[in-house]
Amino acid sequence: MRYLLLLTFTLLIMVAQAQPRLVKKNGSTHFEIDGKPFVMFTGELHNSTSTSESYMQEIGVWKQMKDAHFNTVIASCSWDVIEREPGKYDFTSVDHVIRNARENGLKVVMIWFASWKNGNSTYAPSYIKRNPSKYPLVKNEEGKTLNVLSTFGEASKNADKAAFTALMRHIREIDKDYTVIMMQVENEMGILGSKRDFSPAAEKAWKGQVPADLINYLKAHKGKLFPELEKVWAAAGYKTNGTWEEVFGKSHSNTEDWKEYPYYTEELFQAYYYAKYVGEVTAAGKTEHNIPMYVNNWLKQPGMGAPGGFPSGSPLPEVIDVWRAAAPAIDFTAPDIYINEYEWVLSQFALSENPIFIPECRSDVAKALYAYGEYDAMGFAPFGFDGPAGRGAGGMSAEEYSNFQKCYGLLSGMGTMLTDNYGSDKMRGFFVTADNPNPSIEMGDYKITFSSTQRMRAFNYGQGAEQLAADNAALAARNRNQTQSGALIIQTGADEFYVVAINGVLNFAPRNPKTKGRVLLDTLEEGTFKDGKWIPGRNLNGDENRPNIVGVGAMRIVLYQSTVDAPAGRWG
After folding, report:
1. How far apart are CA 515 and CA 563, in angstroms?
2. To which H or E segment does residue 497 belong?
3. Res. 469: pLDDT tops 90
4. Which whole number is the average pLDDT over 157-173?
5. How far from 458 is each of 437, 438, 473, 551, CA to CA, in Å?
6. Strands (DSSP E) found in 299-345
7. What spatial distance separates the first Cα and last Cα of the chain, rounded to whole Å?
8. pTM
9. Nearest to 300 by CA among 266, 254, 341, 331
10. Residue 500 main-chain phi, psi, to 5 deg
11. Which pLDDT tens digit goes with each residue over 223-280?
C-alpha cells in the first residue's frame, strides 16, 4: 500500500513537471516545459490552413517549419468545424495538427476560433448564427444589429463553454506528452462599429451597479492600476459603489490623439463583460486540461483611436485590470502587432508585469530580435508564413523566409543562453526606426549604439571622388531593400559580447564620457551557435574590422580600452 502511494505521488510529480507552465524568475516570466525554460520560435498559420490535413501536406507546411528551425506552430481550431450540430463533436481537424506536429518534433499553440474572431462572430456554428433570438447579437447606439454575439447571451456563452470544455478534454486524452502547450481563447474579440453594446440586457447592466468583483480588485490594487484607470477612478472620488459613470466618470469623446482614451468608461464596461464571458469559458476548459491560456488583441492605432474603431472591450493594456478582476483564469494578454508603433505597443503591454508573447506580427526579424532581447519574449510569430517556401506565398516573401530561417537557426542553437539572461541587464535589444535611427544602450563599462546598414557609406580606399560616388550610389540602391534593422546583444564578460542582428553596425564607446582613450576591437568573429556553444567562423580584421552585419548573422566581439586618443589612417 505504501509502495502504491509512493508510486502515485511520484507519477503526480512527473506529470506536474511535464505540464507547461508560466514561472516568475528574476522579475521576468519564463515559459517552461518539463521543468525547463522553453522559448517559442514560431509562426502562425493562415486562418483556414489547419482545417485540412491534405492541404497542409500539399503546400509542405511541416517541412517549411522544420527547415526554418521553428519549434512551435500556432494553428487554429474552428468551432464551426468541430461542432456542426449541437453537442456532436468532430475533432479530426485537431487530431491531424497534433499528430503531425508530434511527428515533426514541434509543439502547438492552438487558437480557439469561437464566439469572436476579429470582432465578428463568423466562426460560431450554423445553429447559433441562424438563431439570434436564442443567441443574441450586439445592438449599436442606433439600435442596428451587428454581426457580433452579445456578451450578455447566456446560451451563447454556455454553448461556447461546453464546446471548449469538450475540446480540452479531448486534447488531454490524446496528448499525453503535451504537444499542445498553450491555448489562445477567442481571437481579437471586441465590438467594431459601436463603443459598447446597447442591447436591452447591456443597457440594464450599464445603468446598474459596477460589479463587486471589479470593485474589490480596484480596492486591493489601488495605487498600482493602469495609469488611466487610476486617474479616472481618482477623479470620481475613488467611489466603491455606484453605476459605471458614477464610479469612473462620464467619458470624453476627444479623438485627436489616438493614444488618449475617449469613451473610456464605455470601454471599461465592455471589457468587463467580455472578460466575464471569456473567463468562464477559459476556467471551464482548464478544469479538463490545465495548460497556460491567453487572449489576444486588435490594437488601437492611428485612425482607430476610439472604441468601436478598434474592437471595444478587447483586452488592451488600458483595461488589463478589468480583465484580471473578471477573468482570473486567463494567464496573460498578447498583442497582434501590425502597426508601426512597435516599441510603444511592447512598452504598454509590459506594464502590470504582463509577460510578452507576440502571436501575430509582420515578417520582420528585427522585431523578433528586439522582443526577445529587450522584453524577454516567450515567443514571436510572423503571421501567415505558410506556403511554398521561396515563392513568396503565404504572406512571407522568399527573402523574409530566409531571414527567419537564419534567425531562428541562430537563436535555437543558443540553448539556454537566452533564458539564462531573461530578467538580466546582460541581455538587451535594438530596433531601428525612422524616429530612432541610432538607438543606444549602456552595458557594463560601455555605451553601445546600433545603426542600420542603410545609413552606411562606402569605404574610402583611395579610389577617387567619382568612383566613391558610384560606390555610394550602388550601396544606397542595395540598402533600399534592407528595411529591417535590429539586434539582440548578450554580455558574457566585462569586455565580451555576442550579437545576433539583421542589417546593422555597432559602435562601442566608454560609458563614462570622462574616460580617456578609445574603445577598440580586440577580437571580432563571425560564427554560429550549436547546442549552446559558439562555433567561430571567420576572424575579421584589416578591411573587415568593424562589427557590421548585412542580412542576418551573429558575431562575437571582444573589446579593450586603448590609450589612443584619436583615430589614425583612413578609418577615422
Report:
1. 10
2. strand 496-510
3. no
4. 98
5. 19, 19, 9, 17
6. 332-337
7. 80
8. 0.91
9. 341
10. -115, 125
11. 999 999 999 999 999 999 999 999 999 998 877 789 999 999 999 999 999 999 999 9
CA–CA separation, 353 and 278 (whole Å): 21
Torsion region of 551: left, alpha or beta (phi above 0 gives left; psi -120 to 50 gives alpha): left
Confidence check: pLDDT of 567 > 70: no
Q: Determine the residue type at 514.
A: K
Nearest alpha-carbon partner for 39 in 72, 66, 67, 69: 72
Cell of 465: 571622388
pLDDT digits (tens, 9 = 90+) for 501-556: 999 999 999 999 888 888 999 999 999 999 999 999 999 999 899 999 999 999 99
pLDDT score recorded for residue 569: 46
- Euclidean distance between CA atoms 380 and 429, whole angstroms: 14
Phi and psi, residue 22, nearest 5°: -100, 135
- Per-residue pLDDT tens digits for 389-412: 544 445 688 899 999 999 999 999
- DSSP letters, 207-218, are HSBPPHHHHHHH
For residue 540, report the phi and psi dihedrals to the nearest 5 degrees: -95, 135
Residue 449, pLDDT > 70, answer yes
- For 380, the 3-state DSSP assignment is strand
More confident residue, 321 or 512: 321
Q: Alpha carbon of 561 to those of 3, 350, 421: distances in Å?
A: 64, 36, 25
Q: What is the mean pLDDT of residues 475-504?
A: 84
Average pLDDT value over all residues in the chain? 91
Burial of 76 (0-12, 13-18, 19+ CB in 10 A): buried
Find out whether 80 and 153 touch, Cβ atoms under 8 Å. no
Collapse the DSSP code of 39 into the 3-class scheme (helix H, G, I; strand E, B; otherwise coil) and give the result.
coil
Question: From CA 319, how far away is CA 322, in angstroms rounded?
Answer: 5
Please give the Cα distance from 563 to 572 (Å, whole number).
Answer: 16
In angstroms, the Cα distances linking 313 to 80, 189, 222, 279 are 23, 7, 22, 13
Domains and CATH numbers, the chain: 1-38 (no CATH), 39-208+269-413 (3.20.20.80), 440-571 (2.60.220)
- Amino acid present at 357: F
User: Torsion angle of alpha carbons 348, 352, 356, 358, nearest 10°?
Assistant: -50
Using only C-alpha atoms, what is the Rg of the chain?
A: 26
> In angstroms, rounded to a whole number, what is the distance separating the alpha carbons of residues 548 and 540?
10
Q: Is 509 left (phi over 0), alpha (psi -120 to 50) or beta?
A: beta
Grid cell at residue 255:
479623438
> 185: helix, coil or strand?
strand
